[in-house]
């Protein structure tokens, strides 16, 4: 029993005297939280899906305590779904010169900024362009805002419907956030929201879309990354607790041979120009017909000395065989981190190598509920991983799309539903530290980030220790 306990995730962390006292407070909150869920007189239980429990979670004292907790880094989040939907609806869609393309069934297809009359310059049989200001005047601001909001969130948990919905949202948002003046503002807001949620560092997964201006002209590809870097530096300048961001370039695998050469050459150019800011490369699947990772392996092997890889396995689109093979190829190609998914549990050799080589293993708890049609995260397949001392990391994938906080909701579900019931402050501390240790930062940068995190952690521990419960 002692051996098993020692080898559980987080149990090798030694707490200070202050942390021990704070841990007593934390565990009291946790047991009170379990009691609250067990005697809840509503039809909502802790085992329900996130979409049903979200409001109850946010009203709890434990959630409020966890929100203040310094969580280290968010290592797996995307450019789409990075901010709250309210910011997009109430701020970005009120910008001047914004048009929306509306289908006959009133579905929204696309946003676009333009000085021109788009029905003449962009003909389409699927929808009609309206200035957003005019469309609001026709139907009322509240009605239009509610409709836009409905188009930017995912409520279904059906595996295949989630995949289609995700693709629709990406298509809808592309013309909105890739407008050059909006791109920086969008990310500045996202970084501020993550800071308020207790995050010190972020790695953004993005296809780096070509930005455009009001005349419709596209800007050089390098400007997309430069603008994102400026947004990061601006926010870091005004927030001492924020140690910046890096980018993982994530172009699609659904390309032909000629496009592959251009894509990978472009990635190397981006890495050459933004050596310290571009963390590395992933090749993602954005539909059911994308090529498997093995089709790119020969070219990727030649890039290994120049580029770090952060591959994912695309459960939302791939079949079981493809996911298995992509996971194995990601490991063989030396991916710096691996994502948790169902396929991983069927490969004990890779799990042993993750432990032996200390490869970061990223879990996105809420995302898995949606992407993999998981009925109950209390029986989450990642739960077994917390019984071993694996290098686990918590992140949030597309938090805005399921109306979640940047990362606190994922920590709450991990602490209350996925990790063992007796998990305490040690688990939270280990998760936060792992996120920095397994980031794409250099060793010197990690030392700085850990120092900043430790200062904030000590402050939070003091506040928790002195809480009146």
Automatic annotation (TrEMBL):
Matches recorded under Gene3D superfamilies: Metal-dependent hydrolases
Gene Ontology MF annotations: adenosine deaminase activity; metal ion binding
Pfam families for the chain: A_deaminase_N (PF08451)
Cofactor(s) of this protein: Zn(2+)
Stretches assigned to the Adenosine/AMP deaminase N-terminal domain: 1-66
Enzyme class: hydrolase
UniProt GO cellular component terms: extracellular space
Compartments it resides in: Secreted
Chemical reaction(s) catalysed: adenosine + H2O + H(+) = inosine + NH4(+)
Keywords associated with the record: Hydrolase, Metal-binding, Secreted, Signal
Record flagged with keyword Metal-binding: yes
Any GO BP annotation: adenosine catabolic process
EC number: 3.5.4.4
Family: Belongs to the metallo-dependent hydrolases superfamily. Adenosine and AMP deaminases family. ADGF subfamily.
Protein name: Adenosine deaminase
């Amino acid at each position: 029993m002692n051996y098993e306990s020692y080898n559980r995730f987080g149990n090798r962390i030694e707490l200070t005297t202050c942390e021990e006292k704070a841990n007593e407070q934390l565990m009291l909150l946790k047991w009170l939280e379990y009691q609250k869920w067990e005697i809840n007189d509503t039809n909502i239980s802790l085992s329900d899906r996130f979409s049903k429990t979200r409001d109850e979670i946010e009203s709890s004292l434990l959630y409020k305590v966890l929100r203040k907790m310094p969580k280290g880094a968010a290592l797996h989040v995307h450019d789409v779904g990075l901010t709250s939907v309210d910011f997009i609806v109430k701020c970005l869609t009120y910008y001047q010169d914004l048009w929306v393309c509306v289908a006959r069934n009133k579905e929204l297809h696309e946003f676009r900024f333009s000085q021109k009359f788009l029905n003449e310059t962009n003909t389409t049989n699927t929808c009609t362009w309206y200035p957003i200001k005019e469309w609001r005047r026709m139907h009322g601001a509240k009605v239009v805002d509610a409709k836009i909001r409905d188009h930017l969130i995912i409520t279904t948990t059906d595996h295949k419907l989630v995949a289609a919905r995700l693709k629709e949202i990406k298509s809808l948002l592309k013309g909105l956030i890739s407008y050059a003046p909006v791109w920086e503002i969008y990310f500045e807001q996202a970084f501020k929201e993550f800071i308020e949620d207790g995050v010190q560092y972020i790695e953004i997964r993005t296809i780096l879309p070509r930005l455009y201006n009001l005349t419709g002209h596209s800007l050089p590809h390098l400007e997309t990354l430069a603008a994102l870097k400026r947004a990061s530096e601006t926010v870091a300048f005004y927030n001492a607790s924020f140690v910046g961001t890096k980018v993982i370039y994530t172009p699609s695998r659904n390309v032909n041979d000629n496009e592959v050469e251009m894509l990978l050459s472009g990635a190397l150019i981006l890495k050459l120009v933004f050596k310290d800011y571009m963390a590395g490369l992933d090749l993602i699947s954005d539909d059911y017909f994308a090529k498997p990772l093995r089709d790119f392996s020969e070219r990727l092997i030649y890039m290994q000395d120049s580029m770090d890889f952060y591959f994912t396995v695309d459960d939302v689109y791939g079949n079981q065989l493809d996911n298995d093979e992509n996971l194995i190829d990601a490991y063989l190609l030396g991916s710096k981190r691996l994502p948790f998914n169902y396929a991983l549990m069927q490969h004990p050799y890779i799990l042993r190598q993750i432990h032996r080589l200390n490869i970061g293993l990223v879990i996105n708890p809420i995302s898995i509920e949606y992407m993999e049609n998981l009925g109950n995260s209390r029986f989450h397949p990642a739960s077994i991983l917390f019984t071993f001392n694996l290098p686990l990391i918590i992140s949030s994938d597309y938090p805005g799309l399921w109306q979640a906080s940047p990362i606190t909701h994922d920590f709450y579900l991990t602490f209350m539903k996925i990790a063992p019931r007796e998990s305490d402050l040690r688990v939270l501390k280990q998760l936060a530290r792992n996120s920095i240790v397994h980031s794409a930062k250099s060793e010197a940068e990690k030392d700085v980030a850990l120092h900043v995190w430790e200062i904030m952690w000590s402050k939070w521990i003091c506040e928790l220790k002195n809480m009146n419960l």
